[in-house]
Amino acid sequence: MRNNYHIPKDSQGQELIYFAGHSLGLQPKTVQHIVDRELLQWANSGVEGHFDSENAWYTYHERMRGPLSKLVGSTTHEVAALNSLTVNLNLLLTTFYRPTNKRYKILVEEHLFASDFYALEQQVRLHGLSVKECIEFIPWPKENKGFPLESIKHTIDDLGESLALILLPGVQYINGQCFPMKEIVEAGHSVGSVVGFDLAHAIGNIEMNLHEWQVDFACWCSYKYLNSGPGGPGGIFVHENHLNKDLPQMAGWWGNDPNGRFTMKKTFVPVSNADRFQMSNPSILALAAHEASLAEFDKTTMQDLRKEAKSLTDLAFKGFENLNIDIITPSEWDKRGNQLSIELNNAIEIHKALRAEGIICDLRDKNILRLAFCPMYNKPEEIALLLERLEELIR
Ligand SMILES: Cc1ncc(COP(=O)(O)O)c(C=O)c1O
Q: Does the C-beta of 173 come closer than 6 Å to ligand 1?
């Protein structure tokens, strides 16, 4: 599939070695054509492009449902492409964080993405509650080898009926660990809590079955493993258990029944699917790029991508071990995806030296390098080169 992507080049025209798919995925070659198609539609038909075209903009977002539902393991009416991750998280928290006198706590992990914390913190404040009393943290694992399920379950049990909401990552962004979502949902539901996930680093990376696992809600971005471009459309999953209810929610005309959308009546009639969370009409140009990138996933399956990812990450994992590099991503295959994170004393210098040699990865917290080995465009030869360079640099 590598040929289907634009591989960035250096000033000499040499392809870079790109291990930053966990940050910004590469551009599928089809994107330009599909975005151009919509630009042309706009140029040639103006407002009529909303309805009078093969790709009518009025229903354009619906095209994302099929591919997204396959990626997260859901029905098509449980997913929607809209807004961006943090906006969606705020929308979903407004609906799903409904604290009472007895049940008001939120459980997160210690190093959750700061944007998620800001959203949670402000939601707590909107309810007039104390952030200190409401937000509980699962501490970062001492041995740096991933959060053990048992300690997550213990914390959930300890918090018991005070727990209103659990928000955890599908894949943790620093160490690349896959969280056992099914088991976390079971534990959360057993004490009556709502369970949601931030899937920024999970979608397009690992296999998921959100519907079957009874996940209440999830949100994601599309610019990492989904390769939909910088600031590409976010997405949500809301379990069908909730969709037909009279939910308290943020609302706008695009979440209203499409048949009555233009009647301008002062009654919000939510669509009976995840589209009810749409507020505004979406950016068609951003959705066009998203559509093109999702089509690449439709040419394969997550199962096949996972197989490919295993062989790439195993190769890198063994290579790092041979070089005695400290790997903070769990070693077990079912606990990791495409990203491996390594800890090095002189990570800043190594990161710089790798970049100078055309190898792109990212630096976190001064001593961690994060590298994603994306089955869609990375190849074993690139990993061999990385290991060679690392060996020279750490010697
Ligand atoms: C784990 C995680 N959550 C949330 C975000 C925020 O995404 P957005 O800027 O789309 O709101 C990111 C962005 O990289 C992320 O990695």
A: yes
Q: Does ligand 1 come within 6 angstroms of the Cβ of 166?
A: no
pLDDT (tens digit, 9 = 90+) per residue, 342-381?
Answer: 999 999 999 999 999 999 999 998 899 999 999 999 999 9
User: Is the C-beta atom of 179 inside 6 A of ligand 1?
Assistant: no
In which residue ranges of the chain is pLDDT below 70? none
Q: What is the 3-state secondary structure (H, E, C) of the chain?
A: CHHHECCCECCCCCECEECCCCCCCCCECCHHHHHHHHHHHHHHHHHHHHCCCCCCHHHHHHHHHHHHHHHHCCCHHHEEECCCHHHHHHHHHHHHCCCCCCCCEEEEECCCCHHHHHHHHHHHHHCCCCHHHHEEEECCCCCCCCCCHHHHHHHHHHHHHHEEEEEEECECCCCCEECCHHHHHHHHHHCCCEEEEECCCCCCCCCCCCCCCCCCEEEECCCCCCCCCCCCCCEEEECHHHHCCCCCCCCCHHHECHHHHHHCCCCCCECCCHHHHCCCCCCHHHHHHHHHHHHHHHCCCHHHHHHHHHHHHHHHHHHHHHCCCEECCCCCHHHECCEEEEECCCHHHHHHHHHHCCEECEEECCCEEEEECCCCCCCHHHHHHHHHHHHHHHC
Among 24, 86, 115, residue to substitute to test ligand 1 (most atoms within 8 Å of Cβ): 115
193 CA to centre of ligand 1 in angstroms: 24
Domains of the chain: 50-298 (3.40.640.10), 301-394 (3.90.1150.10)
How many angstroms is it from 200 CA to the middle of ligand 1?
Answer: 6
